[in-house]
Amino acid sequence: MSYVKPSEDDSLSQTTSKDEDQNSEFMTMLEQFQQIKPTLPPTFVKNETLRLYGMTVMEYQELDSYYDINYHITVDQAVNNYINDFHPAGYVLKVLNAKDSQNPALIEAMHLVLDHLRRKCFPVQAFVSNVYGDLWSSETVVNEFGTKKTYIVSMLTYLEGKTMTSKQINPSSLYNIGIYAGLLQNALEDFDNDFLRKRENQWDLLQLPKLVKFAPVLEHKKEFQLLKTIMTDFKTEVVPVLEHLTKVLIHGDLNDGNILVKEVMGRTNIPEEKTTYDIVGIIDFLDMQYSYTIVDIAILIAHMSAECTCMAPIDVGGHVLAGYLTVKELTHNERGILRLLICSRLAQLVILNEFTLLMDPHNKSVLSHLENYKRVIWKFCQTSKTELYRRWNEVLRDYNIENVFSIL
């Protein structure tokens, strides 16, 4: 078969057609994702908590969330006719985003996972049944603009602790987080769920190459070529290796906002940067996915590297791994792709956060993190695998862990 090189006009026509198709797909997607985050009337929290759960709200505060809306509520103990075990710390009233509200099986799966972890003695939230005896309800809400939307509403117990977002991240905290991540992975290894196996989630790191459809968001950003390179390298260097690993259920979003901590008591006059925090729980299991444990640890390192200010971002992974390696080992294949997986998560975060800002320019969760992701992705990509792993080996040596990463 002979190959005829297309003329410049043909090439231009094909490129233009491809760009037009991509832009058309992007505009359709943008339209679909408009108003994905719930918009609720001011009376919603008190009225719906009383109607659905028989509770009188005393105080409530909106919690930081990406697509959903969550409220920490405290209620009048004297008026909880439907609640057998009153929870003094309060509850979380959760309103699922419009897209996920179309999949009630997601809430059912989350309930099963939390029960599974509770049986293994993990401190996790518990669902609270409503007055109808159900774990969730589908509610049509009319917002202040007169628009009707249907959202899944549920309630969980409030898990006490402060998120890492509000605390100084330091080496001891990173070490403890690494241990906890390994223990969580071990606890999830024997959990199975058909819905989660089939679910497609844009936050699944394995879906990274598909994010090329978001190109119109990024083409004028200085990170554009860098992100394209990462996506290409992911397909050629990561995907072939993952095929040799075993899929299990992972949390999928181990970030500073989903990790709850408390200060280790009995220590006084300790500066904030040296304060030790114990991990008291993990929240937000809605990005659960069947993937690989090395993906989960890469996600964790990416987020901790972006938020830590007490050391160079590229050193953070060494402290996380020092804790993680007390629970689990890394295989040769996993070690080989870890750096690129971290870069891939940061690329995913930059792309999807830029897209979210188009829909919701005032999204506090995005605005507080996006610049950190951009700063750190350059750091990782400008540091060779050899140099990164050399630095991690030095950190691990301080924990009496020798020669985890081979240096070529």
Commentary on this structure:
It contains 13 helices and ten strands. The chain has 408 residues and is an alpha+beta fold. It has two domains: 114 residues, Phosphorylase Kinase, domain 1; 237 residues, Aminoglycoside phosphotransferase (APH), C-terminal lobe (Aminoglycoside 3'-phosphotransferase, Chain: A, domain 2), CATH 3.90.1200. It has a five-stranded antiparallel beta sheet. Helix 7 packs across helix 10. The longest helix has 28 residues. The chain is globular. The protein starts with 7 loop residues before the first helix and ends in a 10-residue tail after the last helix. It is an enzyme of class 2 (transferase). This is Hydroxylysine kinase. It catalyses: (5R)-5-hydroxy-L-lysine + GTP = (5R)-5-phosphooxy-L-lysine + GDP + H(+).
Compact description:
By secondary structure, the chain is an alpha+beta fold.
